[in-house]
Write a structure and sequence with these properties.
Layout (H helix, E strand, L loop, with lengths): L5 H13 L1 H9 L10 E6 L4 E6 L2 E2 L1 H13 L3 E6 L8 E4 H17 L7 E5 L4 H13 L2 E4 L6 H11 L3 E5 L2 E3 L2 E3 L1 H9 L7 E5 L13 E3 H4 L12 E2 L3 E7 L7 E6 H15 L7 E4 L6 H13 L3 E5 L10 H8 L4 E4 L1 H8 L16 E5 L5 H11 L6 E4 L33 E4 L5 E2 L4 E7 L9 E2 L3 H9 L6 E9 L5 E6 L3 E4 L2 E4 H9 L6 E9 L3 E9 L7 H15 L8 E5 L12 H9 L15 H12 L1
Helix pairs in contact: 1-2, 3-4, 3-10, 4-5, 6-7, 9-10, 12-13
The chain binds 5'-O-[(S)-ethoxy(hydroxy)phosphoryl]adenosine.
The site of 5'-O-[(S)-ethoxy(hydroxy)phosphoryl]adenosine (WTA) has 22 residues, from helix 10, strand 20, strand 25 and strand 26.
InterPro entries: Ac_CoA_lig (IPR011904), ACAS_N (IPR032387), AMP-bd_C (IPR025110), AMP-bd_C_sf (IPR045851), AMP-binding_CS (IPR020845), AMP-dep_synth/lig_dom (IPR000873), ANL_N_sf (IPR042099)
Protein name: Acetate--CoA ligase
EC number: 6.2.1.1
């Protein structure tokens, strides 16, 4: 199923459009199914209702583990590189991983988990995180992984939205020279989570933790009570595999739902093709498993293809900015998949950290999460790839389940800052504000997808109408991505960024409404408006305009207080980079905040504010500019 030439790509693409069912049906043959499907696809984007591989039965862990045992039991499935470079790394072969997943699956059962139950996972980047994820899938429980940087309140909201029955966590996590008390955060979260019956706690940092009798149990104790035989639960192709929460332009984060069959096929197919993975190669994705990239391209994609996947606990700059390159050399990494924000951050340290880096093992480089600027692209290409490694700039989303628009390594001619061409099976189109498709090349518009693909979201958990509204109502019969995009003369796609109220901070999606809600919770704040602004390392930063009349206090202290409130309500990742106190916000006569103007001010572009005549009180703008310039 690997595409090895541009002609083969074109043929595959054409077939995927003309005969999509045949195309995907053939690809799906390379996976292990307990029972075949009777229909490859039935769909409509109105409701929406999307079913792939209807009637088929499978378990994704049989594809990620069991099927590799006959020939590759002793091949490395996971190589774990700890935060501390002095500590030994750990290799888990497919056989070992299989045993541990089965054993932990039995622990989940022993603690009351059944098929269909939702399980929240809040863990550091350790092998046990992958084990917990796969153990859920093994027994048909639905995992909801929450990134370690979210606050107790965010976790509680996610747990309650999905009515999770179990939580799997650890005492703590290491991140560079910081230690994070995960269990304590969970304890705070669970005060407001009546559905949680059991918490399984892994020992990692051995920080003192409180263990509640009857609710909390130690991972290490539990695994002693069970064996490592666990038959995989037979799942329907459209049964839920996982929920992953992501931010949108309105209100609270939504639980994006992925199902077993289509997601597996799509994650596996795209992994194998985009990175041109060859048997025996070591693949390193630097994302956190708490995000979709980690789900699809640390766990499910690579393991379904029998690959060796590196899990790195630490950060790129600890103990110093050569850490990524040390990990690459130490484990002889062939494929490195990372984010523009990491590249820009490492770039800023100059050549010194590269002094002792060999990097000869590298063959393919990948980028994901946000637009990659040309400077970062060239640095990555020259300094890391030594001009010899294709860079695959992969555009996709939590909702798409896998990579959508991307070069195929060694096949597609790359072009800096372009995600290039749609993968086979993906039918992108650009749409103007009236919902008309824009035909031809050398054009730009809002990016939509016209036809279903196996990895696409099926619903938003517990609220199907929200799914319809968010993705399928803006343009009839199309999935709307929320991204702006241009298609150049060669038909190459370049993603220009979000066109909705989502900010992409270091590749993390943050809804402006969410941050505003958090700021507004702070005592004394009357109102706030949040916009993104260009940030050298993070891609985008968060700029908050805050109406806070009580200026008696120390402004700097108030600023810190507000940051503390945001950290509590969402997590440190949503802290504004800049806060400007103002006495009013630019609003239209109907009361809508004109973010366009605020964006300009946040960018420091005070001259091109556009038409302000529809504002209720244009004087507000003058005042805001004044304050912004004084700062
Ligand atoms: C952005 C991450 C430009 C985009 C996999 C998208 C990108 C959002 C790229 C999804 C890329 C992701 N070039 N922009 N290669 N990849 N994006 O859900 O705005 O965390 O809508 O999924 O990131 O973020 P998410």
């Amino acid at each position: 199923m690997q595409i090895n030439s541009i002609e083969a790509y074109e043929l595959a693409y054409q077939k995927s459009v003309e005969k999509p069912e045949q195309f995907w049906g053939e690809i799906a043959q390379s996976f292990h199914w307990r029972k075949p499907w009777f229909k490859v696809l039935s769909w409509n984007f109105r409701d929406p209702e999307i079913k792939w591989f209807e009637g088929a039965k499978l378990n994704i862990t049989e594809n990620c583990l069991d099927r590799h045992l006959a020939a590759h039991a002793d091949k490395a499935a996971i190589i774990w590189e700890p935060n501390d470079p002095e500590q030994d790394s750990i290799t888990l072969t497919y056989k070992m991983l299989h045993e541990r997943v089965c054993r932990f699956a039995n622990v989940l059962k022993r603690n009351g988990a059944k098929k269909g139950d939702r399980i929240c996972i809040y863990m550091p980047m350790v092998p046990e995180l992958a084990i917990a994820v796969l153990a859920c899938a093994r027994i048909g429980a639905v995992h909801s992984v929450v990134f370690g940087g979210f606050s107790a309140k965010s976790i509680a909201d996610r747990i309650n939205d999905a009515a999770c029955k179990l939580v799997v966590t650890a005492d703590g996590a290491y991140r560079g020279n910081k230690k994070i008390e995960l269990k304590e955060v969970i304890d705070d979260a669970l005060i407001g989570c009546p559905t949680v019956e059991k918490v399984i706690v892994l020992t990692h940092t051995r920080t003192p933790v409180s263990m509640l009798k009857g609710r909390d149990v130690w991972w290490e104790d539990e695994v002693k009570h069970v064996n490592d035989v666990c038959e995989a639960e037979e799942m329907d192709a459209e049964d839920l595999l996982f929920i992953l929460y992501t931010s949108g332009s309105t209100g609270k984060p939504k639980g994006v739902v992925h199902t077993c069959g289509g997601y597996m096929v799509y994650a596996g197919y795209t992994f194998s093709n985009v990175f041109n993975y060859q048997p025996g190669e070591v693949y390193f994705c630097t994302a956190d498993i708490g995000w979709i990239t980690g789900h699809s391209y640390i766990i499910y994609g690579p393991l379904s293809q029998g690959a060796t996947s590196v899990i790195f606990e630490g950060i790129p700059t600890y103990p110093d900015a050569s850490r990524f390159w040390q990990v690459v050399d130490k484990h002889q990494v062939n494929i490195l998949y990372t984010a523009p924000t990491a590249i820009r951050s490492l770039m800023s340290y100059g050549d010194e950290p590269l002094k002792n880096a060999g990097l000869e093992s590298l063959r393919v480089l990948g980028s994901v999460g946000e637009p990659i600027n040309e400077e970062a692209w060239h640095w990555f290409d020259e300094k890391i790839g030594k001009g010899n490694c294709p860079i695959v700039d992969t555009w996709w989303q939590t909702e798409t389940g896998g990579i959508m628009i991307s070069p195929i390594a060694n096949v597609t001619k790359t072009k800096p800052s372009y995600a290039t061409l749609p993968l086979p099976g993906i039918q992108p189109c650009l749409v103007d504000e009236n919902g008309q498709e824009i035909i031809g090349n050398g054009v730009s518009g809002n990016l939509c997808i016209k036809f279903p693909w196996p990895g696409m979201l099926r619903t938003t958990y517990g609220d199907h109408e929200r799914c319809r509204q968010t993705y399928f109502s803006a343009y009839p019969d199309m999935y709307f991505t929320g991204d702006g995009c241009l298609r150049d003369e060669d038909g190459y796609y370049r993603i220009t960024g979000r066109v909705d109220d989502v900010i992409n901070v270091s590749g993390h999606r943050i809804g402006t409404a969410e941050v505003e809600n958090a700021i507004n919770m702070h005592a004394g704040v009357v109102e706030s408006a949040v916009v993104g602004f260009p940030h050298e390392v993070k891609g985008q930063g968060i700029f908050a305009f805050v109406i806070y009349p009580e200026h008696h206090a120390d402004e700097e202290l108030t600023r810190k207080d507000i940051l503390q409130t945001v950290t509590r309500m969402i997590g440190a990742i949503a802290k504004p980079d800049k806060i400007l106190f103002v006495s009013g916000l630019p609003k239209t006569r109907s009361g809508k905040i004109m973010r366009r103007i605020l964006r300009k001010i946040a960018e420091g572009d005070m001259t091109n504010l556009g038409d302000t005549s529809t504002l209720l009180d244009p004087a507000v703008v003058t005042e805001i500019i004044d304050r912004a310039q004084k700062k």
